[in-house]
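Our consortium's second objective concerns turning raw sequence data into structural hypotheses that experimental partners can test. To show how far this objective has progressed, the report includes one record in full. It was chosen at random from the queue rather than selected for favorable results. The single chain below, 335 residues long, was entered without modification.
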Amino acid sequence: MKHNEKPLVTVILTAYNHQQYIEECLNSVFEQTYMHIQLILVDNASTDNTLTLIQERKTPSKDFLLIKNLYNKGLCTAFNQALAHAKGKYVIDLSGDDVLLPQRVEQQISMFESLSEDYAVIFSNARYIDRKSKLLDFHYPVNNEGKALVKVPTGDVYKNVLERYFICTPTMMMRTDALRELGGYDDTLKFEDFDFWVRSAVKFKYCYQDEVLTHKRILPGSLATLVYKKNSGMLASYYTVCNKAYDLNRDQEEFDLLAARIRTFIRKCFYAQEFELALKFRMLLNYIENPGWKTELVVFLCRMHLPVNGLYRFYLKHLQKVSADRKDLGVEIVN
Protein backbone atom coordinates (compact mmCIF):
# COMPACT_ATOMS: atom_id res chain seq x y z
CA MET A 1 0.00 0.00 0.00
CA LYS A 2 1.29 3.42 -0.92
CA HIS A 3 1.96 5.85 1.91
CA ASN A 4 -0.80 8.25 0.87
CA GLU A 5 -3.32 5.57 -0.08
CA LYS A 6 -6.41 5.41 2.08
CA PRO A 7 -6.91 2.05 3.81
CA LEU A 8 -9.64 -0.28 2.59
CA VAL A 9 -12.49 -1.05 5.01
CA THR A 10 -14.44 -4.29 4.74
CA VAL A 11 -18.07 -4.13 5.84
CA ILE A 12 -19.33 -7.62 6.66
CA LEU A 13 -23.11 -7.56 6.49
CA THR A 14 -25.01 -10.61 7.73
CA ALA A 15 -28.69 -10.83 6.84
CA TYR A 16 -31.47 -13.23 7.74
CA ASN A 17 -35.12 -12.39 6.97
CA HIS A 18 -34.43 -8.65 6.94
CA GLN A 19 -36.65 -7.75 3.97
CA GLN A 20 -38.15 -4.77 5.85
CA TYR A 21 -34.76 -3.26 6.63
CA ILE A 22 -32.12 -4.49 4.17
CA GLU A 23 -32.56 -1.65 1.67
CA GLU A 24 -32.08 1.02 4.34
CA CYS A 25 -29.05 -0.87 5.65
CA LEU A 26 -27.50 -1.23 2.17
CA ASN A 27 -28.15 2.43 1.36
CA SER A 28 -26.30 3.41 4.54
CA VAL A 29 -23.23 1.53 3.28
CA PHE A 30 -23.43 2.85 -0.30
CA GLU A 31 -23.90 6.45 0.90
CA GLN A 32 -20.78 6.61 3.06
CA THR A 33 -18.58 9.67 2.58
CA TYR A 34 -15.59 7.27 2.60
CA MET A 35 -15.19 5.53 -0.75
CA HIS A 36 -12.68 2.74 -0.05
CA ILE A 37 -15.14 0.07 1.07
CA GLN A 38 -15.43 -3.62 0.31
CA LEU A 39 -18.89 -5.00 1.08
CA ILE A 40 -19.26 -8.71 1.82
CA LEU A 41 -22.87 -9.70 2.35
CA VAL A 42 -23.85 -13.11 3.71
CA ASP A 43 -27.48 -14.08 3.28
CA ASN A 44 -27.99 -16.75 5.91
CA ALA A 45 -30.69 -18.68 4.00
CA SER A 46 -33.43 -16.06 4.35
CA THR A 47 -36.94 -17.42 3.76
CA ASP A 48 -38.49 -14.05 2.91
CA ASN A 49 -37.69 -11.57 0.12
CA THR A 50 -34.33 -10.46 1.56
CA LEU A 51 -32.13 -12.18 -1.03
CA THR A 52 -34.14 -10.82 -3.97
CA LEU A 53 -33.84 -7.28 -2.64
CA ILE A 54 -30.08 -7.74 -2.19
CA GLN A 55 -29.61 -9.05 -5.72
CA GLU A 56 -31.53 -6.09 -7.13
CA ARG A 57 -29.04 -3.73 -5.47
CA LYS A 58 -25.89 -5.64 -6.39
CA THR A 59 -23.96 -3.95 -9.22
CA PRO A 60 -20.62 -4.91 -10.80
CA SER A 61 -19.32 -1.35 -10.31
CA LYS A 62 -19.02 -1.85 -6.56
CA ASP A 63 -16.63 -4.07 -4.57
CA PHE A 64 -19.54 -6.22 -3.46
CA LEU A 65 -19.29 -9.96 -2.74
CA LEU A 66 -22.51 -11.88 -2.04
CA ILE A 67 -22.38 -15.22 -0.21
CA LYS A 68 -25.63 -17.22 -0.31
CA ASN A 69 -25.94 -19.90 2.36
CA LEU A 70 -28.25 -22.85 1.66
CA TYR A 71 -29.10 -23.12 5.37
CA ASN A 72 -28.75 -20.77 8.34
CA LYS A 73 -25.24 -21.36 9.67
CA GLY A 74 -25.56 -18.98 12.62
CA LEU A 75 -24.18 -15.49 13.02
CA CYS A 76 -20.62 -16.40 14.00
CA THR A 77 -20.06 -18.89 11.17
CA ALA A 78 -21.55 -16.46 8.63
CA PHE A 79 -19.20 -13.73 9.80
CA ASN A 80 -16.18 -16.04 9.57
CA GLN A 81 -17.19 -17.02 6.03
CA ALA A 82 -16.96 -13.37 5.05
CA LEU A 83 -13.81 -12.70 7.07
CA ALA A 84 -12.00 -15.29 4.94
CA HIS A 85 -12.58 -13.01 1.93
CA ALA A 86 -11.93 -9.67 3.67
CA LYS A 87 -9.30 -7.51 1.93
CA GLY A 88 -9.64 -4.46 4.17
CA LYS A 89 -7.24 -3.29 6.86
CA TYR A 90 -10.29 -2.79 9.07
CA VAL A 91 -13.60 -4.63 9.44
CA ILE A 92 -17.10 -3.55 10.46
CA ASP A 93 -19.60 -6.21 11.55
CA LEU A 94 -23.06 -5.02 10.47
CA SER A 95 -26.48 -6.64 10.84
CA GLY A 96 -29.02 -6.34 8.04
CA ASP A 97 -31.36 -4.26 10.19
CA ASP A 98 -28.88 -1.65 11.48
CA VAL A 99 -27.87 1.64 9.82
CA LEU A 100 -24.54 3.42 9.41
CA LEU A 101 -24.63 7.22 9.50
CA PRO A 102 -22.97 8.79 6.41
CA GLN A 103 -19.64 9.79 8.05
CA ARG A 104 -19.29 6.64 10.17
CA VAL A 105 -16.44 5.01 8.23
CA GLU A 106 -14.60 8.25 7.47
CA GLN A 107 -14.57 9.37 11.10
CA GLN A 108 -13.53 5.97 12.46
CA ILE A 109 -10.74 5.60 9.91
CA SER A 110 -9.44 9.06 10.80
CA MET A 111 -9.19 8.08 14.46
CA PHE A 112 -7.94 4.52 13.92
CA GLU A 113 -5.07 5.66 11.70
CA SER A 114 -3.87 7.95 14.51
CA LEU A 115 -3.66 5.11 17.05
CA SER A 116 -0.77 2.80 17.86
CA GLU A 117 -0.76 -0.86 16.82
CA ASP A 118 -1.82 -2.07 20.27
CA TYR A 119 -5.34 -0.77 19.57
CA ALA A 120 -7.54 -3.36 17.84
CA VAL A 121 -11.03 -1.89 18.23
CA ILE A 122 -12.75 1.48 17.96
CA PHE A 123 -16.33 1.82 19.20
CA SER A 124 -18.69 4.78 19.48
CA ASN A 125 -22.07 5.94 20.72
CA ALA A 126 -25.28 4.90 18.95
CA ARG A 127 -28.93 5.85 18.66
CA TYR A 128 -31.57 3.14 18.94
CA ILE A 129 -34.38 2.95 16.39
CA ASP A 130 -37.58 0.89 16.27
CA ARG A 131 -39.00 -1.22 13.44
CA LYS A 132 -40.26 1.93 11.68
CA SER A 133 -36.88 3.72 12.09
CA LYS A 134 -38.28 6.05 14.75
CA LEU A 135 -35.46 7.49 16.86
CA LEU A 136 -35.33 6.23 20.44
CA ASP A 137 -32.75 6.58 23.23
CA PHE A 138 -28.99 6.92 22.90
CA HIS A 139 -26.75 4.04 23.96
CA TYR A 140 -24.89 6.50 26.21
CA PRO A 141 -27.01 9.52 27.24
CA VAL A 142 -25.75 12.75 25.66
CA ASN A 143 -25.66 16.47 26.38
CA ASN A 144 -26.79 19.25 24.04
CA GLU A 145 -23.57 18.90 22.03
CA GLY A 146 -24.15 15.18 21.50
CA LYS A 147 -21.33 14.12 23.83
CA ALA A 148 -21.71 11.28 26.32
CA LEU A 149 -22.77 12.27 29.84
CA VAL A 150 -21.13 9.17 31.32
CA LYS A 151 -17.49 8.16 31.44
CA VAL A 152 -16.98 5.42 28.86
CA PRO A 153 -14.08 2.97 29.34
CA THR A 154 -11.24 3.27 26.83
CA GLY A 155 -7.72 1.81 26.55
CA ASP A 156 -7.35 -1.41 28.57
CA VAL A 157 -11.03 -2.34 28.97
CA TYR A 158 -10.66 -6.02 29.94
CA LYS A 159 -11.85 -5.49 33.51
CA ASN A 160 -14.78 -3.42 32.26
CA VAL A 161 -15.74 -6.18 29.81
CA LEU A 162 -15.80 -8.71 32.64
CA GLU A 163 -17.89 -6.42 34.80
CA ARG A 164 -20.76 -5.41 32.51
CA TYR A 165 -22.13 -4.90 29.02
CA PHE A 166 -21.22 -1.40 27.85
CA ILE A 167 -20.19 -1.57 24.16
CA CYS A 168 -22.84 -1.25 21.45
CA THR A 169 -21.67 -4.05 19.16
CA PRO A 170 -22.51 -2.61 15.68
CA THR A 171 -20.51 0.55 16.44
CA MET A 172 -17.22 -1.36 16.43
CA MET A 173 -14.53 -1.15 13.79
CA MET A 174 -11.87 -3.85 14.21
CA ARG A 175 -8.35 -4.40 12.88
CA THR A 176 -8.53 -7.31 10.45
CA ASP A 177 -5.13 -8.73 11.41
CA ALA A 178 -6.16 -8.78 15.10
CA LEU A 179 -9.39 -10.58 14.23
CA ARG A 180 -7.48 -13.20 12.26
CA GLU A 181 -4.91 -13.57 15.02
CA LEU A 182 -7.79 -14.43 17.36
CA GLY A 183 -9.22 -16.93 14.88
CA GLY A 184 -12.32 -14.82 14.11
CA TYR A 185 -15.51 -15.45 16.04
CA ASP A 186 -16.12 -18.68 17.97
CA ASP A 187 -18.68 -20.40 15.75
CA THR A 188 -19.71 -22.83 18.51
CA LEU A 189 -21.47 -19.95 20.30
CA LYS A 190 -24.90 -18.37 19.82
CA PHE A 191 -23.47 -14.83 19.85
CA GLU A 192 -20.19 -13.12 19.10
CA ASP A 193 -19.78 -10.01 21.23
CA PHE A 194 -19.03 -11.08 24.84
CA ASP A 195 -16.64 -13.79 23.68
CA PHE A 196 -14.84 -11.46 21.25
CA TRP A 197 -14.56 -8.74 23.90
CA VAL A 198 -13.01 -11.14 26.41
CA ARG A 199 -10.51 -12.68 23.99
CA SER A 200 -9.49 -9.40 22.34
CA ALA A 201 -9.51 -6.99 25.31
CA VAL A 202 -7.06 -9.15 27.24
CA LYS A 203 -4.53 -8.65 24.39
CA PHE A 204 -5.40 -5.33 22.75
CA LYS A 205 -6.62 -1.84 23.64
CA TYR A 206 -10.00 -0.36 22.74
CA CYS A 207 -10.65 3.27 21.83
CA TYR A 208 -13.97 5.01 22.50
CA GLN A 209 -14.93 7.65 19.92
CA ASP A 210 -17.45 10.06 21.41
CA GLU A 211 -19.74 10.42 18.40
CA VAL A 212 -23.12 8.98 17.40
CA LEU A 213 -22.26 7.12 14.18
CA THR A 214 -24.73 4.22 14.07
CA HIS A 215 -28.43 3.51 14.44
CA LYS A 216 -29.09 0.16 16.10
CA ARG A 217 -32.53 -1.32 15.58
CA ILE A 218 -34.44 -2.75 18.54
CA LEU A 219 -36.86 -5.54 17.61
CA PRO A 220 -38.94 -7.98 19.65
CA GLY A 221 -37.51 -11.48 19.45
CA SER A 222 -33.93 -10.31 18.88
CA LEU A 223 -31.00 -12.42 20.06
CA ALA A 224 -30.69 -10.47 23.33
CA THR A 225 -34.25 -11.38 24.32
CA LEU A 226 -33.52 -15.11 24.08
CA VAL A 227 -31.49 -15.23 27.32
CA TYR A 228 -34.59 -16.09 29.34
CA LYS A 229 -35.98 -18.54 26.80
CA LYS A 230 -35.38 -22.06 28.10
CA ASN A 231 -32.71 -24.02 26.19
CA SER A 232 -32.02 -21.17 23.76
CA GLY A 233 -28.30 -21.87 24.03
CA MET A 234 -27.54 -18.30 25.11
CA LEU A 235 -26.70 -19.09 28.72
CA ALA A 236 -24.69 -22.16 27.67
CA SER A 237 -22.63 -19.84 25.45
CA TYR A 238 -22.10 -17.46 28.39
CA TYR A 239 -20.85 -20.43 30.42
CA THR A 240 -18.29 -21.22 27.71
CA VAL A 241 -17.06 -17.61 27.66
CA CYS A 242 -16.81 -17.46 31.48
CA ASN A 243 -14.55 -20.52 31.36
CA LYS A 244 -12.36 -18.79 28.78
CA ALA A 245 -12.18 -15.68 30.97
CA TYR A 246 -11.18 -17.84 33.94
CA ASP A 247 -8.17 -19.09 31.94
CA LEU A 248 -7.26 -15.59 30.68
CA ASN A 249 -7.54 -13.63 33.94
CA ARG A 250 -4.34 -11.99 35.17
CA ASP A 251 -5.03 -10.79 38.73
CA GLN A 252 -7.39 -11.12 41.68
CA GLU A 253 -9.52 -8.12 40.72
CA GLU A 254 -10.34 -9.78 37.42
CA PHE A 255 -11.36 -12.98 39.22
CA ASP A 256 -13.56 -10.93 41.57
CA LEU A 257 -15.27 -9.26 38.61
CA LEU A 258 -15.77 -12.61 36.88
CA ALA A 259 -17.25 -14.06 40.08
CA ALA A 260 -19.80 -11.25 40.26
CA ARG A 261 -20.75 -11.83 36.60
CA ILE A 262 -21.13 -15.58 37.21
CA ARG A 263 -23.58 -14.85 40.05
CA THR A 264 -25.80 -12.93 37.63
CA PHE A 265 -25.76 -15.87 35.21
CA ILE A 266 -26.78 -18.27 38.01
CA ARG A 267 -29.83 -16.08 38.67
CA LYS A 268 -30.61 -15.97 34.94
CA CYS A 269 -30.35 -19.78 34.77
CA PHE A 270 -32.95 -19.96 37.56
CA TYR A 271 -35.39 -17.69 35.69
CA ALA A 272 -34.77 -19.56 32.41
CA GLN A 273 -35.24 -22.93 34.19
CA GLU A 274 -31.80 -24.07 33.02
CA PHE A 275 -31.18 -25.65 36.38
CA GLU A 276 -28.34 -28.03 35.51
CA LEU A 277 -26.44 -25.18 33.87
CA ALA A 278 -26.83 -23.15 37.08
CA LEU A 279 -25.02 -25.94 38.93
CA LYS A 280 -22.17 -25.78 36.41
CA PHE A 281 -21.88 -22.02 36.91
CA ARG A 282 -21.87 -22.60 40.67
CA MET A 283 -18.99 -25.08 40.33
CA LEU A 284 -16.98 -22.55 38.29
CA LEU A 285 -17.71 -19.86 40.87
CA ASN A 286 -16.49 -22.18 43.62
CA TYR A 287 -13.06 -22.30 41.97
CA ILE A 288 -12.83 -18.53 42.52
CA GLU A 289 -14.50 -18.00 45.89
CA ASN A 290 -17.08 -19.32 48.32
CA PRO A 291 -20.47 -18.76 46.64
CA GLY A 292 -22.05 -17.41 49.85
CA TRP A 293 -25.55 -17.97 51.22
CA LYS A 294 -27.45 -15.79 48.71
CA THR A 295 -26.08 -17.66 45.70
CA GLU A 296 -26.47 -21.00 47.47
CA LEU A 297 -30.14 -20.15 48.05
CA VAL A 298 -30.64 -19.60 44.32
CA VAL A 299 -28.84 -22.88 43.61
CA PHE A 300 -31.08 -24.63 46.15
CA LEU A 301 -34.15 -23.26 44.36
CA CYS A 302 -32.69 -24.54 41.08
CA ARG A 303 -32.43 -28.01 42.58
CA MET A 304 -36.16 -27.82 43.36
CA HIS A 305 -36.90 -27.34 39.63
CA LEU A 306 -39.51 -24.65 40.21
CA PRO A 307 -41.57 -23.75 37.07
CA VAL A 308 -40.74 -20.02 37.11
CA ASN A 309 -39.88 -19.31 33.47
CA GLY A 310 -43.35 -18.52 32.13
CA LEU A 311 -44.17 -16.22 35.03
CA TYR A 312 -40.84 -14.38 34.77
CA ARG A 313 -41.16 -13.82 31.01
CA PHE A 314 -44.68 -12.47 31.57
CA TYR A 315 -43.21 -10.08 34.14
CA LEU A 316 -40.54 -8.91 31.64
CA LYS A 317 -43.17 -8.27 28.96
CA HIS A 318 -45.17 -6.21 31.47
CA LEU A 319 -42.10 -4.12 32.30
CA GLN A 320 -41.43 -3.50 28.60
CA LYS A 321 -45.05 -2.42 28.04
CA VAL A 322 -44.97 -0.02 31.00
CA SER A 323 -41.70 1.48 29.72
CA ALA A 324 -43.14 1.92 26.21
CA ASP A 325 -46.33 3.49 27.56
CA ARG A 326 -44.35 6.01 29.58
CA LYS A 327 -42.35 7.04 26.52
CA ASP A 328 -45.51 7.43 24.44
CA LEU A 329 -47.03 9.67 27.13
CA GLY A 330 -44.18 11.92 28.08
CA VAL A 331 -40.94 11.72 26.16
CA GLU A 332 -40.22 13.87 23.14
CA ILE A 333 -38.01 12.19 20.56
CA VAL A 334 -35.52 14.74 19.21
CA ASN A 335 -34.47 14.38 15.58
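The partners drew two points from this record. The CA atoms of residues 10 and 86 lie 6 Å apart. Residues 225-309 form one domain. Both points have been shared with the crystallography group to help prioritize constructs.
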